[in-house]
Design a protein that fits this description.
Blueprint lengths: L8 E6 L5 H14 L4 E6 L11 E4 L5 E3 L15 H17 L3 E4 L4 H4 L5 H9 L4 E6 L3 H7 L5 E4 L2 H13 L11 H5 L1
Parallel strand pairs: 1-6, 1-7, 2-5, 5-6
Antiparallel strand pairs: 2-3, 3-4
């Protein structure tokens, strides 16, 4: 399968020993410091013993959110609180509507694979010609390609790959903002 490096939809593909949240979070901070507007969310602290696994940082506000629910010590199911996730998604959607240069989505997980979770933010952002990058576990990359109908670029989980993709997008027409015709949109 061939991917166009100028596609506005990118998968930052990571292995279990990699930290896509740090790569995405640091990249968003740098873009925002340079005057761009990166919005979205990334997980934080999931490798720290004192922080619940399902916590997220809203990139545009710096607010930390708990996305888990305490099901008790005997629970074995997913602790994701979908209500909190959808609330966080609504806040990101409002920021997309206010205008952004990049949308970052923390994970392509089971919810997104089923067309739930934050998957609607991808459509919303691309519909507004705003590039999107999402962390995708390598084990779910085939599911991601099916979800994205093959219209995605695959990035290594490192700062250089992310920067190269962003630079290629930004160079088209010398744009600083999200006002452009995306490669993916042109193929629709």
């Amino acid at each position: 399968m061939t991917f166009d490096s100028q596609c506005d939809l990118a998968a930052l593909v990571y292995e279990p020993d990699q930290d896509p949240d740090r790569v995405l979070g640091d990249f968003a901070s740098e873009l925002n410091a340079l005057g761009h507007r990166a919005v979205g969310l990334v997980q934080f602290g999931h490798r720290e013993a004192d922080t619940p696994r399902l916590s997220a940082l809203l990139l545009h506000s710096g607010e930390r959110l708990q996305l888990y629910q305490d099901l008790g010590p005997m629970a074995s199911g997913c602790k994701l609180d979908t209500g909190r996730l959808l609330d966080a998604g609504a806040r990101v959607a409002s920021e997309i509507d206010a205008g952004a240069d990049l949308v970052i989505i923390n994970r392509f997980g089971r919810q997104e694979r089923e067309g739930k979770g934050l998957s609607y933010l991808i459509d919303r952002a691309l519909g507004a010609d705003i590039p999107v990058v999402i962390a995708v576990p390598s084990a779910r990359f085939a599911d991601w390609i099916k979800f994205a109908d093959g219209m995605s670029v695959r990035l290594r989980c490192d700062r250089d790959s992310l920067q190269a993709w962003w630079t290629a997008l930004s160079a088209r027409g010398g744009r600083k903002t999200n006002r452009h015709t995306s490669f993916c949109e042109a193929l629709k």
